[in-house]
Amino acid sequence: MLLLSLTWYEMISVSLANGEPAITASIMAPSDLHIVKHDFGVILSWNSNITEEIKTYYVKYVLIYKFDTAKEITERLQEKEKMIRLGLHSGFHAKVKTQLLSKESEDIIKESNWTEFTYKAPPVYIQNFSCVIYNISNLNCTWDIKTEAPEDAQYFLSYRHSREEFQCQLYFTNAKNKNIGCHMKEVYFNHANKIRFNITVKELSNSSENHSYYKKFTPQRLEKLNPPINVSISLENRSIKINWKPPPTIGSAKKKCFTYQVKITDLEPVDVSEEEYVHPIHDPA
């Protein structure tokens, strides 16, 4: 069920720039808001109410939206629509206005009032969703179930990567036998392609009441790196020389992609960008 509230203000705009030709027409606030469901959220679109006179100027739309627990996000758009990713949010409040800018200087000439709206998404029954890739080919994902979730609901995870769909191999369950996590092994990721996770919540007593939540990540953001490999230690010119090689990774193996920390006994860790570290040996006092 989609719940939408809309407030539309009609306003005669005020000129904001000196020396620009006067615009006789008022600028109406955006209207006729439409929301279309999308895999990752919704596509928000509107009627700009732009007249022929106004079309001679550079038109932009200022969109500000805010989820329940997040900071405001401000965007300036040329198109009359925006795809808003919901993630695990249950909706958002937003406002949009039209701005006319000079084609030469992009100074603001006039702007409309705001059109405000609130979108209430279907209920979200999970929170704190997170995943980690470790040892190159192992994946763990976990999530928490909200207290308001239906008692008979069950939770299923799949993901899509490089045009293939994968189902969870092994679920972690809680004391109520609800799925709260997933482990998969022998899975491989192309670091250039994002991973699209899908959690489907199925109410066992009502097969029509299924909800799906989507999250997208780049593989590198999820990877827990292994320690460096081929570590060697040698003594040279009264110094300890430590060498190593980068660990296997699903991302780039270029030197510039890694930083390291070296810790010797009880000394403070040292940040190193190369694949070696030399520590001088001091004579005892």
Automatic annotation (TrEMBL):
This is Type I cytokine receptor cytokine-binding domain-containing protein. Pfam families: IL6Ra-bind. GO terms for cellular component: external side of plasma membrane. It is a single-pass type I membrane protein. The keyword Chloroplast does not apply. It is found in: Membrane. SUPFAM superfamilies: Fibronectin type III. InterPro entries: FN3_sf, Ig-like_fold, TypeI_recpt_CBD. Its main location: membrane. Residues 128-221 form the Type I cytokine receptor cytokine-binding domain. The keyword Repressor does not apply. Residues 1-17 form the signal peptide. Keywords: Glycoprotein, Membrane, Receptor, Signal, Transmembrane, Transmembrane helix. It comes from Gopherus evgoodei. It comes from the Eukaryota. GO terms for molecular function: cytokine receptor activity.
